[in-house]
Design a protein that fits this description.
The complex is a heterodimer of chains A (154) and B (195). By secondary structure, chain A is an alpha+beta fold. Chain A folds into two domains: 2-71, Ubiquitin-like (UB roll), CATH 3.10.20.30; 79-151, [2Fe-2S]-binding domain (DNA polymerase, domain 1, Orthogonal Bundle), CATH 1.10.150. Chain A has helices at residues 21-28, 62-65, 79-90, 100-113, 119-126, 136-151; strands at residues 2-5, 8-11, 47-50, 53-56, 69-71. A five-stranded mixed sheet of chain A has the order 2-1-5-3-4, covered by helices on one side. In chain A, strand 3 (47-50) and strand 4 form a beta hairpin. Chain A starts with a strand and ends with a helix. Chain B has one domain. Helices cover 47% and strands 4% of the residues of chain B. In chain B, the strands form two sheets. Chain B has a two-stranded antiparallel sheet. Chain B has a two-stranded antiparallel sheet with strand order 3-4. In chain B, a hairpin with a 4-residue loop joins strand 1 and strand 2. In chain B, helix 1 packs antiparallel against helix 6 (176-188) and helix 4 packs antiparallel against helix 6 (176-188). Chain B is elongated, with a radius of gyration of 25 Å. In chain B, 26% of the residues are buried. Classes of the chains: A alpha+beta (154), B mainly alpha (195).
């Protein structure tokens, strides 16, 4: 099977089409920035972008992703991604860090669609991304800050 | 001349009597037929509604957020309807639910066009009479005619999913073709609703 990941075509050979995309990314392509948390689409640690939308790579299979544009935390880029990354660093959002690649991927998806989200919109978008360290307050603040930064053209 | 007039009057009266009797019999048969249709329709509806109220259907025919599982618990993770009934940016139905079917690895169900029905089609908590009337009401059934309802039950990918929900989820308790026949029978017999 072939996959377009981070702008590059990858042929991973003959694999089970029902294999979770997460296994393709981590085990076949070595992209371990995307984390395995629950394997049941409950925690959001495995979030990547498919055709620009945040998806749970543990719950979508290889055949779901074939022929689509997949972007992972290793290569996500652009104005919104830069603003989110900067806000995360400025506010020192991360504690243990395990969930953060998923948090960031979802935050980028949110801000790519809603440039100035309310608290309620942030909560609705981020509710499926669990942080066992409880960094939710800093995550929300960082999203607001990234939104402000984008609006200022910074 | 008078005899002719009386004779004509008598024959007109007789014809009128015959007509009244025939109309009365016909009317009685029609009434009886209508009664029979109503009974057949309500009998079909009694079985149709067991499917509509099953968690596989009613879990998503909710006013705000979908429910989950046979116990009708809150959806986890929390999701919201969104403007297009498919969630919100960052948390879309397709973020987890595959268009290719159930994912037995993650146990997340899936089917083509996975989404909530429009808010106007929220029937989950309605008594069966109200549910029945809502199903017939184009403003509450997705602008469908009665035949359109039959088609929805026959063809919709999410309706079909209810018979193959995957995992440990309970399937609908009657075969899909029997359900469609019951919906057709309900429509054919006048789509009557209980009071």
């Amino acid at each position: 099977m072939k996959f377009n990941v981070n702008g590059q075509e990858h042929n991973v050979g003959d694999i089970d089409r029902d294999m979770p995309l997460l296994w393709v990314l981590r085990d076949r392509l070595g992209l371990t920035g995307t984390k395995y948390g629950c394997g049941r689409a409950q925690c959001g640690a495995c979030t990547v972008h498919i055709n620009g939308a945040a998806v749970r790579s543990c719950s979508l299979s290889a055949r779901d992703a074939e022929g689509k544009k997949i972007v992972t935390i290793e290569a996500v880029s652009g104005r919104v991604a830069d603003a989110v990354r900067s806000a995360w660093q400025r506010l020192d959002v991360v504690q243990c860090g395990y969930c953060q690649s998923g948090q960031i991927m979802t935050a980028i998806s949110l801000l790519s669609n809603i440039r100035k989200p309310t608290d309620a919109e942030i909560d609705a978008a981020m509710d499926g991304n669990i942080c066992r360290c409880g960094t939710y307050i800093r995550i929300r603040k960082a999203i607001h800050e990234a939104a402000w930064s984008i609006a200022q053209g910074r | 001349m008078r005899g002719i007039v009386i004779g004509a009057g008598a024959s007109t009266g007789l014809a009128l009597l015959v007509w009244v009797l025939a109309a009365s019999i016909w009317s009685g048969e029609a009434t009886s037929q209508r009664h029979s249709d109503r009974e057949a329709s309500l009998a079909a509806w009694d079985r149709v509604v067991t499917v509509l109220q099953h968690p596989r259907c009613s879990n998503c025919h909710q006013p705000k957020e979908p429910l989950q599982g046979d116990s009708r618990r809150r959806h986890s993770p929390r999701v919201v309807r969104g403007r297009d009934n498919m969630g919100v940016p960052g948390m879309r139905c397709g973020s987890c639910h595959s268009e290719h079917g159930n994912n037995e690895a993650s146990r997340v169900p899936g089917a083509a066009d996975w989404k909530m029905p429009p808010r106007s089609m929220s029937w989950a908590r309605l008594p069966i009479g109200q549910l029945c009337r809502a199903l017939k009401d184009p403003t509450k059934n997705g602008r469908r005619s009665l035949n359109g309802i039959v088609k929805h039950m026959q063809e919709d990918s999410l309706v079909h999913w209810s018979w193959e929900p995957g995992g440990t989820r309970e399937s609908i308790g009657m075969p899909h073709d029997v359900f469609v026949e019951l919906v057709e029978e309900w429509v054919r017999s006048g789509a009557h609703c209980p009071d």
